[in-house]
Write a structure and sequence with these properties.
alpha/beta; two-stranded antiparallel ribbon; globular; binds 3-isopropylmalic acid; binds magnesium ion
């Protein structure tokens, strides 16, 4: 899938790959993207199309992105520790609608272009319900993020969430505009518990939120919906450092932890993986992206060595 699949078959998601995915209970996905395409927007066949297609084909409409800081990384974030401490957010990013999948157009003379932002009621309902269910098991606070002051698609979104909210009177609901949410997220991340939002806003907001966890290299995600679970780090393939052994493997490892928990109900095993990551960080091991100059007891490791340390700590 992705760049290698395009090179081999001309298709970013060959049928064979999709068939294998369909026969699986869960999928652990690496990362996607390649410099060649980023630098040439005119290329028609692109790696990311494979990812979008598999999300759609497997009905993965809910992308869960938990944001939780490991204690030892308090200094790794660019946000002040006192603001961060205790922040714990679970994002529900809608994943198979919005401008990502709406009609794309380019005028004949190629000088204008549009992407349709479209949401259907049922798409908002199902993700809102899922987010509310999760909020019930947490601090019982849900923040729905939209741009209802400007966008019709957002007004539908808000209307539907307000309706679903009636089924969950025990959960406190807040509606926030995306611009305000982007600001509040770094001003006071602790105010959030569960956040539910559309595909594009969720994409942007969770990259921002990764700073609460110290680095993009720390954030795992789970995409769920119809049946199969799909697990991937939120980051791309980081082609600028490809092959150098610098990448942080922890987001991928933590994605595997989510896989064990959500797709197979192996809660204990999942916790053991998370604890192994925690122990590794406590011992001072860091990849470049989460290294700081604040502590003397930091040891910078490459990708393989970091993975090996986590394995050592797994028990
Ligand atoms: C993500 C990524 C993808 C997205 C890209 C690679 C298409 O940024 O999973 O957040 O925009 O959904
Ligand atoms: Mg993204």
């Amino acid at each position: 899938m992705g760049h290698v699949a395009i090179e081999a078959t001309g298709n970013p998601l060959p049928d064979e790959t999709l068939e294998k995915a369909r026969k699986s209970d869960a999928i652990l996905f690496g990362a996607i993207g390649h410099a060649k395409y980023d630098n040439d927007p005119t290329l028609k066949v692109r790696p990311e199309q494979g990812l979008l297609k598999i999300r759609k084909e497997l009905g993965l409409y809910a992308n869960l992105r938990p944001i939780k800081l490991f204690d030892d990384l308090l200094q790794a974030s660019s946000i002040k520790p006192e603001i961060l401490q205790g922040a714990d957010i679970l994002f529900f990013r809608e994943l198979t609608g919005d401008v990502y999948f709406g009609e794309k157009k380019r005028s004949e003379d190629r000088t204008s272009a549009s992407d349709l932002m479209i949401y259907h009621k049922y798409e908002v309902e199902r993700i809102a319900r899922m987010a509310y269910e999760a909020a019930r098991t947490r601090k019982k606070r849900l923040c729905s993020v939209d741009k209802a002051n400007v966008l019709e698609a957002s007004r539908l979104w808000r209307e539907v969430v307000q309706e679903i909210a009636k089924e969950y009177p025990d959960v406190e609901t807040e509606h926030m505009f995306i611009d305000n949410a982007a600001m509040q997220l770094i001003k006071d991340p602790k105010r959030f518990d569960v956040v539910v939002t559309g595909n594009l806003f969720g994409d942007i907001l969770t990259d921002e939120a990764s700073q609460i966890a110290g680095s993009m290299g720390m954030l795992a995600s789970a995409s769920v919906g119809d049946a199969i679970g799909f697990y991937e780090p939120i980051h791309g393939s980081a082609h600028d450092i490809a092959g150098k052994g610098l990448a942080n493997p922890l987001a991928s490892i933590l994605s595997a932890a989510l896989l064990l928990d959500i797709s197979f109900g192996l809660k204990d095993e999942s916790q053991r993986v998370i604890k192994a990551v925690d122990a590794t960080l406590r011992q001072g091991y860091r990849t470049m992206d989460i290294a700081t100059k604040h502590t003397a007891n930091e040891f910078i490791l490459g990708t393989d060595a970091m993975g090996a340390k986590v394995l050592d700590n797994l028990n």
